[in-house]
Amino acid sequence: MDLIKKIKENPIIKKLGFNRIVLACVLVLMYLILSLMVENFAGMPRIMSALNYVYFLGFLSLGVTFVIATGGIDFSIGPVMFCCALVSGYSLTSLGVPMLPSLIISLIVGLLFGMMNGYLVAYWKVPPFIVSMASMNIAKGVASVFTKTQSVSWPQAAKGGWFRSLVKVGKFPVGIIVFLVVAAICSIILNHTKAGRYILSLGSNREAVRLSGVDTKKWEMLAYAICGVLVGIAAIYFVGAYTTVQPGYGDQYNNEAIAGCVMGGTSMAGGLASIGGTVIGVFIIALLQEGILALGFTKDYQLIITGLIVIVAVYADVMARRRKN
Fold first, then answer.
1. Hey, where are the domains in the chain?
2. Cα gap 91→131, rounded to integer Å
3. E strands within 48-181?
4. Nearest to 71 by CA among 214, 175, 245, 223
5. Rounded to the nearest 5°, which phi and psi values hold at 273?
């Protein structure tokens, strides 16, 4: 215990973050083990497949990090992502809207859902759990009504789908650069701006922030709005990687995004968030998903493991807070 305490107190370790270093080691160890267990797992096809999962799941996790930092929760991010992809995709393929405006529609739809959730939570004081569950159903309904319950297939690169260059150009994963840049921007917002400080403060001591004269409602709504925009971006990367979207889906990605966020060190109680930890957590979830499929298991096993990860991560957070208090 003394050795671990000394390691944690090392200036370099403190700067990098002990939890993030441990997570990075877990990620590397998982990759090495899977590479030894599965033939050609270290090959480019497997890596690209895992990265396709990282992109959209990563943006979902970044978005929900802001919400959880306030002490809230959003279980609608997966269905809202599908709603963004379906509404914008239908506008492109059936209504004749050009590609760039269609991509902007995805961001607008995500923003509208984020603002709706934030307004209901911040101004109407509806519990976040209830709001997100209602929003999840609304997103599914809007997508089904708008597309007449039809699936939507986005065009391939050779047929005008130039947006796919945001995911990869040839075999080069452009998306990973975009994701890391957006993650860096999110980290700056959360840790080095007034908005970020207030968002974190809402999770740690909302009443004290309110009594100090801060408009807590505005900043809480902003957190949900940021989440909505990132969900809209996630939709673009989802269709960039997987092309076809069907109404009524998306729920399965809620827990995975939240698991990546919580595993990375964001406290479910609010007030503590780590964008860097979220990034590493997302890579672990994506690698886990790819590894389970490579080993011949069904995706159901990933759902079980993801659920267990959430329980362990939340329990660790609760115990850490108890020790601190």
1. 42-254+266-273
2. 27
3. 152-153
4. 223
5. -145, 150
Q: By the 8 A CB rule, do 227 and 112 touch?
A: no
| Mean of per-residue pLDDT scores for the chain | 90
CA 212 – CA 215 distance, rounded (Å): 9
Secondary structure (3-state) at 92:
helix
Contact criterion met (CB below 8 Å) for 212 and 236: no
Compute the distance between CA of residue 131 and CA of residue 119 in angstroms, rounded to an integer. Answer: 10
Per the CB < 8 A criterion, the answer to whether 195 and 189 are in contact is yes
Place of tokens 């065009």: 155
Long-range contacts of 156-159 (CB under 8 A, 24+ apart): 156/243
CA 275 to each of CA 49, 62, 145, 196, 281: distance values in angstroms, whole numbers, following the listed order = 23, 7, 36, 12, 10
Nearest to 136 by CA among 215, 220, 250, 17: 250
Q: Which two tokens stand for residue 71?
A: 């002490």
Mean pLDDT for the stretch of residues 272-291: 92
Count the alpha carbons within 13 Å of 213 in the hemisphere toward its beta carbon. 0
Q: Please name the amino acid found at residue 133.
A: M
d(CA 63, CA 117): 13
Rounded distance between C-alpha atoms, residue 13 and residue 158, angstroms: 47
Distance (Å, whole) CA 33 – CA 288: 11
Contact 106, 235 (CB under 8 A): yes
Q: What pLDDT band is residue 40 in, cutting at 50, 70 and 90?
A: confident
**Torsion from C-alpha of 239, 77, 310, 200, nearest 10 degrees:** 120
